């Protein structure tokens, strides 16, 4: 039998449910589609939709691969799929209730005990737990494929913490924006209602605070493959995105550690594998968990969705037993068949697998990082023999699956349409209340293979994804949970629920952006002078270089052979230079991605642009000669930083999040100015005016200076402008003012009281700048040096106080165990 | 019929104050054949904010507790008094080991409780080296009891008792390679050998008599909590063997809890926040109670 194509019949005729779409697409024409698609791809890039690929150093934040052509499902067929999946979810939930309860199915021989007792995912600590609404499975996803004869099969069950719903949502957003007319005319069913059901269902789980439950989304963190989705969903649903370290258990209740103190958590939407959720009672080697969480669950004080312990149903071996379990538990036949799966722990099944090894896909029964999926068809005779003996050695560990020749769907690539194999991941959510069944997302995440020849459909292996459309028979419900595009989405509630970890990251994001900007400004001043043919005569050049020394960036002793322009190129472009600009920009990007759920889309776009304004280079030495090409890049970067600063000021609500970000910027800016003055003015230069001009330029204060003092350049007014003038947003005094304001607005801590901030501001107010700028007999400015030192010391004390007072969560937890 | 008094103290001393700790203890005894507990108690200092006792999956008594005030020291003291009846003489079962293996593999509903002790578990992940080592004792048709006893004495002979060679996280292959360990390692090793043969084996956590009767040698592992193995024999039940001392426990072994391995029943486990470095001190005292003396003291003094 040949292939089944989703859009075309064997004779090339377009299937009826694709008719409308196909006509509209033809009207559009390939060129128009291409043009619109370019815009859409830009949108994906700007929105920073990514997917992390494990084991690939370049794979962190790989851009999301979305196809312009959606997958269309026949509405009548979809209705049958919905009914079948709801049945399947109910069945799986009942299975879990039995496994973690009376275990009748095991005693009655309906489910092999190996699949439970030998599975690491059977969490004995959860046995007997009484859960809200008696439900274990809240979120379920099924991977569905179609074979050549047109039959649909479930080829995988996702019961742990199914991913993909957020990507499906993002795909829908992009496609509906790229093809708004087509989308409208095809009367596509919307996704928002599904998410509302999910939100209502999660709220209904709250054991105590039912009026206004606090729901958090628990993520393993930014290194997880689908972290983008965690942040995206958290923002979309209005939940706080938390890591295990943000939560703590007190009195068998779960609390979120926030700046405003501990706040009780009622429901946890879990995107972290259950085994890692509690280092006390589950995997003791987990660094991601919350000690005492299992006890909190058993005490009925918190609800998890999914419950802890649901992951074990993902074993492919289970599919073999579902038909009879379904008849037994629900009294009806399984509506949608699973792909032919044969668990080798069963004698007859093992015989079948061994006799047909060549056309089987062999999968591990239990999750195991060392075992891969093996395609019998791709093995040599020796390979088959070796596989056979491995199966015979430990039959329970293997499952043989029939290989389905997946159907194809059109994919738009390089200006033309090609068929690729597809799999749909359909998502279900429990409905609110007990015994209320499940709701199916109308659509889902369709994924396609990397090439027309490959059957492997996986985002990890380089495939792509599609939006999935199901036409509505009635009027389309246009309910939306989303704020209109383009608005800055900031936490809408009072800032009190800001997790301490997030505050920490925002603080450092502020510091890193400001540090990078200061470095760029300095580098631009140097580059402009180097590019000038007469730079040998500029005394400020060496002074600016020595300022780099004070920034701990440039160490002439490190590489004496380098010429100044080569040094500059190294600082700016070398990706491996730890103190250089590229490292600083990486730090900006890294900390920003840790708090991206707190950032508006526009802010994120700016963060994305930072890395493009001045691309890194691994061989910077050759770039020394191309100074003129560096300067426009530096100009662009300064504008990008200005845009970032502008958005922070103009679009972030004045909550704690903003205050921490701004405190980081203020501290870093003050320290930067101090370093600049230390490097340039503490020792008087022979011809000082060009140096002063350079300093004013780097500190972005030339205009103000000129307006005040015309062309007369002297040290004292420069120091006044950059240090003591509280009206100059670049001056140290200005930063101190802002810091004082922020600290006043934050919840008081033991360490924030009695800071030397105000005394420092007063003494700055009192001092006479003429005296400060005075030069002694050795061409030295001791008073200036002393002032700068005490300012720098004060700033470090403030920085430490902020860390200790608000971010003490960074204390890690440890295991205690006594040997027997 | 011996009456013992048990005192088991575990003390953690921290360099810096610990603001919060969560703990699980398996220090209260479950009901075991031949054990008559007069009392058993666990005292925790500082007094925990949360303390809850429950029966765990295996039927052991588990205490969960949390301390929520800053503390520099945690002290957990388990006390008890138990009368231990000598276990009935060695099982006379002559059932061949293959028969037991095949029985375990039938997945009969009535054998479900035994069967769950036939699988690998977090601390008992055997390799071919472990399986091969054990296999030597299981010649075809050999009675299970005989094979188990030989395996027990082989482990005792081939592995050196060394408290410095392993830690709580030492794996079976490491023990196999080092040829040394403590009671916990030997128990895991023997359990691995037995399960690799398709047999059901449990990990038992408990105590040994610390003060030996006159002229008898002191048993190894008596200054800490002890661990040994139990193997299932159809028609007989669970037979205990102690590979650390190469003997079949009679009335000098006191059972507290059992599970698949150490991880299920570790006497005391906790997760603390901060605290810096810490020092652990464990002391176990199991002494016979001089009943006559005690009873005479209770007599009215006239």
Task: Give your account of this protein's structure.
Chain A is α+β, with helices and mostly antiparallel strands. Chain A has 26 helices and 23 strands. In chain A, a hairpin with a 2-residue loop joins strand 8 and strand 9. By secondary structure, chain B is an alpha+beta fold. In chain B, 23% of the residues lie in helices and 37% in strands. Chain B has eight helices and 14 strands. In chain B, the strands form four sheets. A four-stranded antiparallel sheet of chain B has the order 3-6-1-14, with no helix packed on it. In chain B, strands 4-5-2-13 form a four-stranded antiparallel sheet, with no helix packed on it. The longest helix of chain B is centred in the middle third of the chain and has 15 residues. At the A-B interface, strand 8 and strand 23 of A face strand 2, strand 4, helix 7, strand 13 and strand 14 of B.
Which features does this protein show?
heterodimer, A: 820 residues, 7-stranded antiparallel β-sheet, 4-stranded parallel β-sheet, 26 helices, 23 strands, elongated, B: 302 residues, 4-stranded antiparallel β-sheet, 8 helices, 14 strands, 23% helix, globular, disordered C terminus
How would you summarize this macromolecular structure in one to three sentences?
The complex is a heterodimer of chains A (820) and B (302). In chain A, 43% of the residues lie in helices and 13% in strands.
Shape of chain B: globular
Largest sheet of chain A: 7 strands, antiparallel
Rg of chain A, rounded, reads 31 Å
SSE order of chain B, as H and E?
Answer: EEEEEEHHHHEHEHEEEEHEEH
């Amino acid at each position: 039998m040949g292939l089944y194509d989703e859009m075309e019949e064997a004779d090339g005729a377009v299937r009826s449910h694709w008719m409308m779409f196909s006509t509209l697409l033809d009207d559009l024409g390939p060129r128009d589609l291409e043009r619109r698609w370019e815009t859409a791809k830009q949108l994906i890039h700007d929105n920073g939709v990514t997917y992390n690929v494990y084991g690939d150093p370049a794979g962190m934040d790989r851009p999301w691969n979305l196809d312009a052509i959606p997958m269309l499902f026949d509405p009548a067929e979809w209705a049958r799929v919905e009914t079948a999946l709801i049945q399947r979810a109910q069945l799986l939930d009942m299975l879990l209730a039995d496994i973690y309860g009376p275990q009748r199915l095991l005693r009655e021989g309906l489910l092999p005990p190996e699949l439970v007792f030998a599975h690491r995912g059977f969490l004995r600590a959860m046995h007997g737990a009484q859960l809200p609404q008696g439900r274990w499975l809240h979120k379920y996803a099924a991977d569905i494929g179609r074979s050549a004869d047109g039959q649909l099969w479930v080829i995988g069950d996702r019961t742990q913490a199914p991913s993909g719903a957020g990507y499906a949502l993002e795909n829908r957003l992009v496609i509906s924006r790229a093809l708004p007319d087509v989308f409208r005319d095809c009367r596509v069913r919307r996704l928002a209602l599904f998410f509302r059901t999910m939100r209502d269902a999660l709220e209904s789980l709250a054991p105590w605070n039912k009026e206004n439950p606090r729901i958090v989304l628990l993520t393993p963190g930014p290194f997880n493959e689908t972290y983008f989705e965690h942040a995206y969903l958290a923002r979309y649903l209005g939940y706080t995105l938390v890591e295990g370290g943000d939560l703590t258990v007190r009195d068998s209740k779960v609390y979120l550690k926030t700046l405003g103190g501990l706040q009780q958590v009622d429901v946890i939407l879990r995107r972290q594998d259950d085994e890692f959720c509690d280092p006390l009672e589950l995997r003791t080697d987990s660094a991601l968990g919350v000690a005492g969480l299992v006890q909190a669950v058993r005490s009925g004080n918190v609800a998890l969705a999914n419950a802890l312990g649901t992951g074990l149903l993902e074993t492919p071996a289970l599919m073999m037993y579902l038909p009879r379990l379904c008849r037994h538990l629900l009294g009806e036949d399984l509506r949608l068949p699973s792909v032919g799966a044969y668990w080798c722990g069963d004698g007859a099944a093992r015989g079948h697998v061994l006799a047909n090894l060549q056309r089987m896909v062999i999968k591990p029964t239990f999750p195991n990082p060392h075992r891969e999926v093996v395609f019998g068809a791709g093995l040599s005779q020796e390979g088959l023999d070796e596989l056979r003996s491995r199966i015979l050695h430990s039959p329970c560990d293997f499952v043989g699956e029939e290989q389905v020749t997946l159907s194809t769907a059109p994919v738009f690539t390089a200006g033309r349409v090609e068929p690729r194999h597809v799999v749909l991941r359909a998502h279900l959510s429990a409905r609110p209340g007990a015994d209320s069944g499940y709701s199916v997302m109308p659509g889902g995440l369709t994924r396609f293979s990397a090439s027309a020849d490959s059957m492997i459909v996986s985002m990890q292996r380089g495939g792509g994804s599609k939006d999935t459309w199901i036409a509505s028979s009635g009027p389309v419900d246009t309910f939306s949970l989303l704020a209109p595009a383009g608005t800055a989405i900031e936490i809408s509630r009072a800032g009190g629920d800001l997790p301490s970890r997030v505050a920490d990251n925002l603080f450092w994001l502020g510091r890193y952006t400001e540090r990078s900007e200061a470095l760029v400004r300095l580098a631009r001043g140097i580059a402009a002078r180097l590019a000038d043919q007469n730079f040998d005569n500029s005394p400020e050049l060496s002074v600016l270089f020595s300022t780099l020394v004070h920034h701990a960036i440039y160490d002439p002793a490190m590489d004496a052979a380098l010429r100044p322009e080569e040094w500059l190129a190294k600082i700016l472009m070398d990706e491996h230079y730890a103190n250089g600009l590229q490292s600083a920009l990486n730090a900006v990007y890294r900390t920003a991605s840790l708090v991206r759920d707190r950032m508006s889309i526009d802010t994120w776009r700016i963060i994305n642009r930072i890395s493009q304004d001045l691309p890194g280079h691994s061989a910077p030495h050759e770039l020394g000669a191309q100074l003129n090409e560096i300067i426009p890049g530096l100009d662009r970067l300064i504008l990008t930083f200005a845009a970032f600063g502008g958005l922070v000021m103009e679009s972030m609500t004045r909550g704690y999040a903003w205050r921490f970000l701004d405190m980081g910027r203020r501290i870093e800016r003050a320290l930067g100015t101090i370093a600049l003055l230390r490097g340039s003015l503490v020792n008087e230069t022979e011809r000082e005016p060009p140096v002063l001009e350079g300093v004013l330029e780097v500190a972005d204060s030339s205009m103000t200076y000129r307006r005040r003092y015309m062309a007369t350049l002297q040290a004292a007014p420069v120091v006044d402008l950059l240090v003591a003038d509280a009206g100059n947003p670049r001056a140290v005094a200005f930063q101190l003012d802002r810091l004082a304001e922020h600290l006043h607005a934050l919840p008081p801590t033991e360490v924030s009281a009695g800071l030397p901030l105000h005394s420092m501001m007063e003494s700055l107010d009192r001092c006479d700048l003429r005296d400060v700028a005075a030069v002694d007999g050795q061409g030295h400015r001791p008073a200036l040096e002393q002032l700068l030192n005490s300012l720098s010391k004060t700033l470090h004390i403030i920085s430490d106080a902020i860390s200790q007072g608000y971010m003490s969560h960074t204390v890690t937890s440890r295991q205690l165990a006594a040997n027997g | 019929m011996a009456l013992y008094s048990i005192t088991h103290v575990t003390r953690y001393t921290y360099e810096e104050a610990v603001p919060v700790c969560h703990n699980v203890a398996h220090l209260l005894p479950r009901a075991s054949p031949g054990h008559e507990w007069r009392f058993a108690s666990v005292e925790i200092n500082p007094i925990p904010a949360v303390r809850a006792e429950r029966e765990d999956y295996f039927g052991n008594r588990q205490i969960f507790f949390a301390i929520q005030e800053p503390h520099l020291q945690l002290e957990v003291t388990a006390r008890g008094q138990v009368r231990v009846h000598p276990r009935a003489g060695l099982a006379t079962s002559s059932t061949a080991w293959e028969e037991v293996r095949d029985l375990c593999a039938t997945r009969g509903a009535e054998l479900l409780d035994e069967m769950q002790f036939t699988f690998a578990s977090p601390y008992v992940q055997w390799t071919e080296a472990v399986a091969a080592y054990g296999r030597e004792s299981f010649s075809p048709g050999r009675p299970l009891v005989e094979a188990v006893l030989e395996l027990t004495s082989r482990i005792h002979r081939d592995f050196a008792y060394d408290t410095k060679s392993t830690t709580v996280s030492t794996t079976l292959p490491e023990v196999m390679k080092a040829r040394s360990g403590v009671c916990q390692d030997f128990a895991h090793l023997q359990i691995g050998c037995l399960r690799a043969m398709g047999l059901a084996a449990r990990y038992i956590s408990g105590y040994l008599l610390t003060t030996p009767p006159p002229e008898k040698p002191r048993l190894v592992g008596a200054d800490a909590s002890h661990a040994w193995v139990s193997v299932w024999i159809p028609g007989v039940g669970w037979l205990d063997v102690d590979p650390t001392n190469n003997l079949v426990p009679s009335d000098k072994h006191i059972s507290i809890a059992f599970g698949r391995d150490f991880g299920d029943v570790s006497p005391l486990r906790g997760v603390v926040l901060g605290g810096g470095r810490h020092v652990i001190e464990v002391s176990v005292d199991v002494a016979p109670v001089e009943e006559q003396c005690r009873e005479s003291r209770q007599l009215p003094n006239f």
